[in-house]
């Protein structure tokens, strides 16, 4: 599950990580009053207004309605209202939003932290994540903060460092010191950074995260180390023990069809092809998408119906797939093991009859337990359903209905 | 021979009396697996499916001599169940449970590394040796005895591959479902190594998917040490980047874990890669010169 910046920062703060402070608003009316409250505690009247959407590249992104960027500096309390108006409620398109603007329902009004002082501010990159190859957590960090880390990895890989965490003992002091040294810090900033690393790692572990990316980590002109941004992904499988974090889920950031599928207990991912599919098992579902492509179509979705493909679930899945107007055909691919194919076939026939007319051809491939009985049942139903037993037959049928 | 499990394996079921445990334990018994008992803390002393129930794995091992355990314990308690099995001396631990938090699995995998034990899974369909033992949730009748070993991250796709191999006239030795989670006990490479060392296995089907680098690791090993033909399929050519496709581990993070990149690596290492999942059995028959 992905979090908004302000939510990630609230978790960081609860673990003692120093953050760029801010207030969240969802309406313009509150913005100025909240900004005033913020400046009373921070002492600065310069603010950064940041769109809260689940996508990176906000600073360079553009709000479709106003032309404003997604992250804007407001140099004074009198500029707050106008700045918020330029972002809130608009649709922000960034390099990561796949060509469509994302609705901005909330903005974070944060303190400006790039104030002048005894030293130059400097930006670093730091993330904690699961290193799958080594099966342990790792802290990735770089002196090149505030920019696209993929580009840094591409152009200057020697400026990216990795520190692996031994699960038996956790993060050790020498590791935190090594990170601070490698980032070129000394004196007060060095001490602050080791503390920052420990708190960040504690937050990552404590929240059962899959990723905590802080870009940039800022050394301020008065040698504080703070998190200016936070991109956080939590482990869905661990949400049961973090009720407060589970409640942070923002369904408006998700595809409405995927939310609907999730509520029906279907594992569904919306894609932009022309052939819908319904499959039991994640691996077979991906393989089915691939065979659609090989047959000259493009998959319209990923859909794993799981172990119980009864009439109710099949109908729900059909209705979901048919909401997508690009769908020209549906391929059902079920490998019956424990679940009997004739039961699934009956489910398909019942769902079809219940829905009346289905406007696209349906190809049903049932293999495994009672596959022959299942094919007979489909063939005798008189419905516009093509049946197959072998996977290759199903692929050929997809090809023929598309041509 | 066969690998991991056979008709002499003494199998216990952790989470024996729950609905999943009960259903699949009875299916395994029907297949002919030597299920010697089960564990449900607090229900020790009772009898279930005509087998004894124990309070702990240690007690089950002491009383029955069990050497294999299959785990159906709910996700919140499954990592603990894996560690308990290793600590009690179980040699092959097969964890079916889906949805174990990654943090728990990092600790469990580290903990069991000090024991002489092999973990399969979690989030897997289990292991089946044709005519020997089914320690898993797969439909046993598909896996007719033969000479091909299967290693796979996926459940139903394993059944699909086994069905094709059997229909192409070759049959199965052992099929190992290694699981679809980011952290799993036995990797693709380790499972391939087991089958390469097995006298009965003449060819190996290796089924992977997007995410991680397990298939590439296995392919590098096959290139150096492989002695039998390997047919490979990687699911998810059409999967979009950054999205989790059902399995928690099936997510494209970068260039190297896409299906296309993995297939390239596999081909360069001498694996017979098929683009279509419908051609797994056909390809294996062709490579081995078998006519159905």
TrEMBL record, chain A:
Cofactors named for this entry: Mg(2+)
Gene Ontology molecular function, alphabetical: ATP binding; magnesium ion binding; succinate-CoA ligase (ADP-forming) activity; succinate-CoA ligase (GDP-forming) activity
Entry superkingdom: Bacteria
Recorded catalytic activity of this chain's protein: succinate + ATP + CoA = succinyl-CoA + ADP + phosphate; GTP + succinate + CoA = succinyl-CoA + GDP + phosphate
Keywords: ATP-binding, Ligase, Magnesium, Metal-binding, Nucleotide-binding, Tricarboxylic acid cycle
Binding site for Mg(2+): 215, 229
InterPro entries recorded: ATP-grasp_succ-CoA_synth-type, ATP_grasp_subdomain_1, Succ-CoA_synthase_bsu_CS, SUCC_ACL_C, Succ_CoA_ligase-like_bsu, Succinyl-CoA_synth-like
Cellular component GO terms, alphabetical: cytosol; succinate-CoA ligase complex
Enzyme Commission no: 6.2.1.5
Domain ATP-grasp fold succinyl-CoA synthetase-type: 2-217
Note describing how the cofactor binds: Binds 1 Mg(2+) ion per subunit.
Biological processes annotated in GO: succinyl-CoA metabolic process; tricarboxylic acid cycle
Positions that bind substrate: 280, 337-339
Pathway membership, UniProt: Carbohydrate metabolism; tricarboxylic acid cycle; succinate from succinyl-CoA (ligase route): step 1/1
Domain ATP-citrate synthase/succinyl-CoA ligase C-terminal: residue ranges: 278-395
Residues bound to ATP: 50, 57-59, 113, 123
Family: Belongs to the succinate/malate CoA ligase beta subunit family.
Role description: Succinyl-CoA synthetase functions in the citric acid cycle (TCA), coupling the hydrolysis of succinyl-CoA to the synthesis of either ATP or GTP and thus represents the only step of substrate-level phosphorylation in the TCA. The beta subunit provides nucleotide specificity of the enzyme and binds the substrate succinate, while the binding sites for coenzyme A and phosphate are found in the alpha subunit.
Quaternary data: Heterotetramer of two alpha and two beta subunits.
UniProt protein name: Succinate--CoA ligase [ADP-forming] subunit beta
Source species taxonomy: Bacteria, Pseudomonadati, Bacteroidota, Flavobacteriia, Flavobacteriales
Gene label: sucC
UniProtKB/TrEMBL annotation, chain B:
Electron transport found in the keyword field: no
InterPro entries with a match to the protein in the record: Cit_synth/succinyl-CoA_lig_AS, Citrt_syn/SCS-alpha_CS, CoA-bd, CoA_lig_alpha, NAD(P)-bd_dom_sf, SUCC_ACL_C, Succinyl-CoA_synth-like
Binding site for substrate: 159
UniProt GO molecular function: nucleotide binding; succinate-CoA ligase (ADP-forming) activity; succinate-CoA ligase (GDP-forming) activity
Residues that hold CoA according to the record: 17-20, 43, 96-98
One cellular component (GO) term of this entry: succinate-CoA ligase complex (ADP-forming)
Cross-referenced SUPFAM superfamilies: NAD(P)-binding Rossmann-fold domains (SSF51735), Succinyl-CoA synthetase domains (SSF52210)
The protein's assembly and partners: Heterotetramer of two alpha and two beta subunits.
Record-given protein name: Succinate--CoA ligase [ADP-forming] subunit alpha
Organism: Putridiphycobacter roseus
């Amino acid at each position: 599950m992905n979090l908004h910046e302000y939510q990630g920062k609230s978790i960081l703060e609860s673990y003692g990580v120093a953050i760029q402070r801010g207030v969240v608003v969802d309406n313009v009316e509150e913005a100025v009053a909240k900004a005033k409250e913020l400046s009373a505690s921070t002492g600065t009247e310069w603010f950064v207004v940041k769109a809260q959407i689940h996508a990176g590249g906000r600073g360079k992104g553009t709000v479709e309605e106003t032309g404003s960027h997604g992250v804007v500096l407001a140099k004074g309390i009198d500029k707050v209202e106008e700045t918020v108006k330029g972002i809130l409620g608009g649709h922000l398109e960034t390099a990561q939003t796949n060509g469509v603007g994302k609705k901005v329902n909330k903005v974070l009004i944060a303190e400006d932290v790039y104030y002048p002082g005894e030293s130059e501010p400097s930006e670093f990159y730091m993330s904690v994540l699961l290193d799958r190859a080594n099966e342990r957590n790792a802290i990735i960090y770089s002196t090149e903060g505030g920019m696209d880390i993929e580009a840094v990895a591409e152009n200057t890989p020697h400026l990216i460092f990795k520190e692996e965490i031994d699960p038996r003992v956790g993060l050790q002091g020498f590791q935190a010191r090594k990170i601070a040294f490698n980032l070129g810090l000394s004196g007060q900033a060095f001490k602050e950074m080791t503390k920052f690393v420990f708190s960040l790692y504690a937050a990552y572990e404590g929240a059962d995260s899959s990723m905590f990316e802080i870009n940039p980590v800022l050394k301020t002109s008065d040698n504080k180390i703070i998190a200016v941004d936070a991109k956080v992904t939590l482990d869905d499988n661990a949400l049961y023990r973090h009720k407060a974090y589970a409640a942070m889920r923002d369904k408006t950031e998700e595809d409405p069809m995927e939310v609907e599928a999730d509520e029906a207990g279907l594992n569904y991912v919306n894609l932009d092809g022309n052939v819908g599919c319904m499959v039991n098992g994640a691996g077979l579902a991906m393989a089915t998408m691939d065979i659609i492509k090989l047959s000259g179509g493009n998959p319209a979705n990923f859909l794993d119906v799981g172990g119980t493909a009864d009439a109710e679930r099949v109908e729900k899945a059909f209705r979901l797939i048919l909401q997508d107007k690009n769908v020209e055909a549906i391929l059902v691919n079920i490998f019956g093991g424990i679940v009997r194919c004739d039961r699934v076939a009956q489910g398909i026939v019942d769902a079809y009859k219940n829905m009346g007319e289905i406007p696209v051809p349906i190809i049903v491939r049932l293999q495994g337990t009672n596959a022959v009985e299942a094919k007979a049942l489909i063939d005798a139903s008189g419905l516009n359903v093509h049946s197959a037993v072998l996977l290759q037959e199903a692929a050929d049928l997809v090809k023929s209905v598309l041509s | 021979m066969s690998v991991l499990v056979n008709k002499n394996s003494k199998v216990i079921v952790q989470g024996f009396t729950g609905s999943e445990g009960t259903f699949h334990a009875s299916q395994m018994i029907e297949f002919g697996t030597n299920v010697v008992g089960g564990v449900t803390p607090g229900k020790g002393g009772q009898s279930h499916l005509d087998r004894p129930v124990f309070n702990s794995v240690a007690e089950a091992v002491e009383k029955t001599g069990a050497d294999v355990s299959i785990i159906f314990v709910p996700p919140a308690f499954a990592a603990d169940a894996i560690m308990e099995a290793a600590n009690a001396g179980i040699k092959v631990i097969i964890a079916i449970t889906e949805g174990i938090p990654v943090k728990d699995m990092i600790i469990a995998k580290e903990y069991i590394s000090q024991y002489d034990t092999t973990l399969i899974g979690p989030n897997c369909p289990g292991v089946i040796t044709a005519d020997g033992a089914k320690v898993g949730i797969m439909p046993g009748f598909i896996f007719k005895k033969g000479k091909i070993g299967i290693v796979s991250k996926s459940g139903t796709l394993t059944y699909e591959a086994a069905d094709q191999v059997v229909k192409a006239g070759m049959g199965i030795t052992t099929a190992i479902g290694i699981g679809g989670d980011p952290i799993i006990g036995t990797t693709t490479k380790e499972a391939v190594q087991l089958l390469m060392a097995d006298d009965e296995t003449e060819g190996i089907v290796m089924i992977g998917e997007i995410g991680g680098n397990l298939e590439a690791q296995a392919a590098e090993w096959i290139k150096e040490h492989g002695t039998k033909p390997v047919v490979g399929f990687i699911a998810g050519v059409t999967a979009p980047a950054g999205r989790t496709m059902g399995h928690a581990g099936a997510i494209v993070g970068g260039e190297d874990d896409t299906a296309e990149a993995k297939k390239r690596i596999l081909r360069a290492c001498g694996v017979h890669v098929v683009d279509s999942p419908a051609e797994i059995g056909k390809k294996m028959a062709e490579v081995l010169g078998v006519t159905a």
